[in-house]
Design a protein that fits this description.
With about 280 residues, the chain is an alpha+beta fold. The chain is built from ten helices and 13 strands. A five-stranded antiparallel β-sheet has the order 11-10-9-12-13. It has a four-stranded parallel β-sheet with strand order 3-2-1-4, with helices on both faces. The longest helix is centred in the C-terminal third of the chain and has 14 residues, at about 220-230.
């Protein structure tokens, strides 16, 4: 009998990849999405409420219970907090979910808190200031050009590069951070962190105009793993890293879920499956 896995956001890049992977491994794949129709290859599909709605977790739990699900895999950032808080309820049904605790997600999902924690532990991050900092201090500490971006991972709003002090003074958005502009190549590290604090797999991808390509960058991978361990992250992760002008890598952002480019890093899904089989 085929075991059942539920994958959320199944019509997104990570969801489609995960669905194809688990179907190829012989699982019965149920996809959920806020869309009524999806293109992902699944055995069944359910339309579910948005993650911020009170009915989201009850809807998910109902499907898990009805389908005797062995694995629940959230792939959408907005879902993470709700799922983390409901982890005990989900796992009480015999369904595993590999996700960090709500307290850890609070840090990883906040660029300012992430930067402060990692900087205090000598792990490379861009110089970062709260969006409410005086403009004179922002320019003095970060120099120009500098970057303004949403403080929360997955939040609405775009990152903006400012090249003059007048442009910085014109930034009136709330919920942002200012960061030094890091000009070098950008990488995406897909990894799976076990609850023992060790990386079961980690793959560096260099971002390109066409998407991303696998590269061998031990320094980039080491930064992602060290940061994940210090913060206490577990499960599948998607971490953005960029190089300073002199080549030193710094961590830009953490998404504590399966990455959009995981198709190029199937080892992460292998690690997830192995952890499921081992029960850990």
């Amino acid at each position: 009998m085929r075991q059942t896995v539920i994958i959320t956001g199944v019509d997104g890049a990570a969801g489609r990849c995960a669905a194809a992977y688990f179907r190829a491994k012989g699982f019965f794949v149920i996809g959920t999405d806020i869309r009524d129709e999806v293109t992902a290859e699944t055995d069944e599909h359910y339309h579910v409420p948005r993650a911020l709605e009170p009915s989201y977790i009850p809807a998910i739990v109902s499907i898990i219970r009805a389908k005797s699900t062995v694995l629940f895999l959230p792939t959408v950032t907005d879902e993470l907090y709700a799922v983390a808080r409901a982890r005990a309820e989900i796992e009480a049904l015999g369904c595993r979910v590999f996700i960090s605790s709500p307290e850890v997600l609070d840090v990883a999902g906040d660029k300012l808190r992430t930067a402060r924690l990692l900087e205090a532990r000598d792990i490379g991050v861009p110089r970062t200031l709260d969006g409410s900092a005086p403009m004179e201090l922002v320019v003095k500490e970060l120099g120009l050009p500098l970057l303004a971006r949403p403080v929360l991972s997955g939040a609405e709003g775009e990152s903006v590069v400012y090249i003059s002090e007048d442009e910085v003074r014109g930034e009136k958005r709330e919920g942002i951070v200012f960061q030094e502009f890091v000009p070098g190549d950008e990488f995406n590290v897909n990894l799976f962190m076990g609850e023992d604090g060790w990386a079961a797999s980690a793959v560096a991808l260099k971002k390109t105009a066409a998407g991303a390509e696998r590269v061998v960058r031990p320094d980039v991978v080491e930064l992602a793993v060290d940061a994940s361990r210090e913060i206490g992250l577990t499960g599948p992760l998607d971490i953005d890293i960029r190089l300073r002008a002199e080549g030193a890598p710094v961590l830009l952002e953490i998404r504590a879920r399966l990455g959009a480019h995981v198709r190029q890093a199937p080892e992460v899904l292998d690690s997830l499956l192995n952890s499921l089989k081992k029960g850990g």
